[in-house]
Amino acid sequence: FSGRRAQLAILEKGAKMLPKEIGCILLWLMVMVNGLPVKEDTDYWLKYGDNRLYKTLKHQHILGHAKNVIIFVGDGMGMSTITAARIYKGQLMGQLGEDFQLSYEKFPNVGLSKTYNVDKQVPDSAGTATAIFTGVKSNYYMLGLDSMAKFNVCDEEVNEKSKLDSIMKWAQEAGKDTGVVTTTRITHATPAALYAHSNHRDWECDSEIPSIYKNCIKDIARQLVEDEPGKNFKVMLAGGQRQFGLPVNPDPDDDSCDRTDNRNLLDTWMEGRENYQFVNNTEELMNADVQSLDYLLGLFSPGHMPYALERDDSPKGSPSLQQMTSRAIEMLSKSPSGFVLMVEGGRIDHGHHKNYAKLALHEAAQLDDAVEYAAAHTNPKETLIIVTADHSHAFTINGYPKRGNDILGYANKTALDGLYETLAYANGPGFKTHRSESRDCSSALWRIADEEERRQSRYRHFSPMYLDDETHGGEDVPVYSRGPSSHLLSGTFEENYIAHVIGYSACIGPPTKFCSAYGETLPYRTARTHTAHPAVSEILLALRSICQLS
C-alpha cells in the first residue's frame, strides 16, 4: 500500500461485500483494535524525506513587494494548540491525525516570535497585539501606547507622546483599503490594537472608564467609529453590539459592558457615508452586494460571537469565520491599490481560559478553514499571508498514547494505569471538574469523568491548580507565511518585527525606507542596547572600583 487512504479504501470495499450491519461492525472493530492500517516502513520514510527535500530545494523565495496583506491571528494558538488542532482536524476527517497538515503548515516559511511584554514575562493580548500591529513592544493590558504611558492612568500629555500608529494607519496613508474580521467583540484587545490608544484594554464602553478620566480619553468603541484609522475601515465583521449601544437580548454568557452615554454608535458610523450596509446575520452577510458597497459593517452578537461548535448556522444565525473572511476578501479585492486585512480566531483563547479543550481546538480548526480559503483565493505573488498567534497557553499534550488515539481521549487505557487525558492544563477551572468530592482519606484525590460528560463541548480538561481563568503561556509562538518577502519571517525574532516585515513587504509605514531598488545603500539604524540610567551607571562603576569587580 502506498498510503493509509488506499488501505482504508480496500477495507471499506471488503466490508461492503458483507451485509451492511456486519460490515460496519467488522470495519469498526478492525480500526479500534489495530488503528487505521498504515505501512510506514523504511521505504515510506525515505520517500517522504526525498520528496520534502526536493520540494525545499526547488522552492524559490518570492521577492519584491506585496499588493495585499492578510494577517491571521489565532489568539492563544501556541505550538501545543497547533499540534493538537492538527490531530483533531485530521481525526474529524477520518485520518489518524498526527501526519495531517493544516493549510498554513504547507506555507514555505516559518519563524518563532518572542511574545513577552515590556513589563511581563508572560504577556496579555493587548500588549502582544500592539507589538504585532505597530512594530513597538509595549506594556501589559495597554493598547496602542508605548511603554512610557501608564496602565490604568490617563495623562493626556503622556498619551499623546506615546501614541503608536498601526499597520492599518500605514496602509490607509498609502492608499490601501483596510478591514478587520474577528470572532470576538470588535472592541476586544486584538482588533482594538489596530485602531485604539487606551491605558486599559477593558475601557471598551464609556461605563468602564473611571470617572476621573472620562474627559481624558474616549472609550475604545468611540475611537473605532470617530477616529482614524478605525472610521476608515472598509469592512468590519465581528461581535460587539452592546459596545455600539444597540438594543440586544440578554445573553447569560456575555459579561461585556453596556454604554451609559445613550450613544448609538451605529448611527455615528453611518453619518456622512454612502454605499454602506449594516448586517447582523449570515443571510444578510452572504447576500450583501460587496461589489457595489464602499463600506460593510457586520455585528453578529451582543458580545463575543458564539463558539463555532455552538453557533446557529441557519441563515438567521451568525456566520462562520470562513464566511466572514471570504466576504471581507471579496470586498477589499476591489481596491486597485491593494488592501490590508486582519482576521482573528479570537475564541481559541477563550476556550483555553475555561479549560474547554474541544472548543479551543475546534476554533483553531475553523481558523484553518479561513486560511485555506484565503490561500486558495489570492495570488501568492501579490499577497503576503501571515498566520501566527499573539501568545500561547498553559496547555500540554502529554503521556504516551498510541498512534491515532483520540486527541480528546485518555492517554492510557485503564484506571489501573492511573487514567489521565492526553490534553491537560497547568491551571484553570478544570480543577473542580476533576477533584473528588469525597474527603475520605481512603478515597482517590481525583474522580474519573464518565464518557457522556467527556463528550460535551464544554467539558473541562484536567487542571491540578484552580484558577477562575487558566493563564497564558510564555513560550515563543510560530509564524507561518507565504508571499512576497515572506522569507524575512524566518528564524527567531521579537514579536514587533512582524509589523516591520509587513511594512516592508507592502511598502507602507516607516519600513518604506527599505523599499529602495536593490543595489542602493539602504538606511540602517542600530538598535539601542539596554543601557542603565546615568546615575545607575555611576553607582555600578563605583561598586566595581571599591569591590574590585571585573
Automatic annotation (TrEMBL):
The UniProt entry's sequence similarity note says: Belongs to the alkaline phosphatase family.
Q: Which UniProt keywords apply?
A: Cell membrane, Glycoprotein, GPI-anchor, Hydrolase, Lipoprotein, Magnesium, Membrane, Metal-binding, Zinc
Cofactor(s) required for function per UniProt: Mg(2+); Zn(2+)
List the protein's name. Answer: Alkaline phosphatase
Which positions does UniProt annotate for Zn(2+) 2 binding? 75, 390-391, 472
- Predominantly, its location class is membrane
**Origin superkingdom:** Eukaryota
Q: Which InterPro entries match?
A: Alkaline_phosphatase, Alkaline_phosphatase_AS, Alkaline_phosphatase_core_sf
Q: Name one GO cellular component term.
A: side of membrane
Q: Does the keyword Signal apply?
A: no
